[in-house]
Amino acid sequence: MRSFTSEKHVMPKKTVLVYDDVEAICEVCQLILCPYYIVETRLNCVRLFEDIERVKPDIILMDYRMPVMNGDLAIRALQEDESTENIPVILFTAAYDLKKVIKRVKVAGVLKKPFNIEELKEVVDKYVR
User: Fold this and answer.
1) Which of 75, 97, 117, 120 has its Cβ near the most Cβ atoms within 10 Å?
2) CA distance 107 to 62
3) Can you give the C-alpha Rg of the chain in angstroms?
4) pTM metric for this prediction
5) Contacting residues for 52 by C-beta, under 8 A, at least 6 apart
6) Residue 16: CB partners within 8 Å, gap ≥ 6?
7) Is the Cβ–Cβ distance between 56 and 16 less than 8 Å?
């Protein structure tokens, strides 16, 4: 007699890498996204490419205004490197001149601060496949 077992094929969780210099925002992102994704956070972009090599993110959430290397420079660096140019980047910003910011950097999406739980989850879900 043949026995069949039903194994559930569990898809591995996708990884979100969050860059924001405000620790509370990093914590909020973890709380909101951890049930659905693996979430890594960083307070700056100093080791941008090392972080990406180690974490292997499926998506990056990037604050626009950060010390040392701002989001603008970090996004440009990612887009200029063949190994990272296809990682979707969602820009976090509280900038009042949002249209100017978007013209300067090409991003998959924008999440205006302050954001709510549903907005964060929706924008990540949209770009993570």
Assistant:
1) 75
2) 10
3) 16
4) 0.86
5) 17, 60, 78, 84, 87
6) 29, 33, 37, 38, 39, 40, 57, 58, 59, 60, 61, 124, 128
7) no
Q: What is the pLDDT of residues 35-54, one digit of tens each?
A: 999 999 999 999 999 999 99
Q: Rounded distance, CA 37 to CA 30, Å? A: 9
DSSP three-state, residue 82:
coil
Domains and CATH numbers, the chain: 15-127 (3.40.50.2300)
Question: CA of 107: how far to CAs of 32, 59, 76, 79, in Å?
Answer: 22, 11, 10, 9
